[in-house]
Hints:
Blueprint: H1 2-7, H2 9-33, H3 40-48, H4 54-65, H5 74-84, H6 86-119, H7 122-143
Helix pairs in contact: 3-5, 4-6, 5-6
Amino acid sequence: MKYFLKKHSKEIKIFISLGLSILFLTFLYRLYKLGILTNSDKLYDYIGAFTYLAPLIFIILKVLIGFVPFIPTTIFIVIGFALFGQKFGLFLNYITGLMTAVLNYTLTRIYGKRFLNFFLPKKALKNTKVRQDKAQKDLKKFYF
């Protein structure tokens, strides 16, 4: 079993990534079809219907929406304040913003270079690396 996991770890990671991506997109599509992502009243009713689990559902939805650029998070911020009050709404919005930032940073650190290698030619990556190194040298000269 250990040998199998070691030998096929790349394929397993790709399979898990694709599975989670499909699950995420299916979830967003269902929410969109129900009108929850486009109508703030439906979103308010949807999250409010969970009563005790509403903060957890709000956190999950807002973190997931943070990965999709075409859905405005402003609606979620306003609904967070309306559902949970000023202090708890601010706390939940702060926590979800922090979680989204940490997840985006982590995903970029893990998959960023491979993602760029997939979409950009080698020459463009080399030029970017040269410019980045030059900028770092200039910054070091500025500070020191």
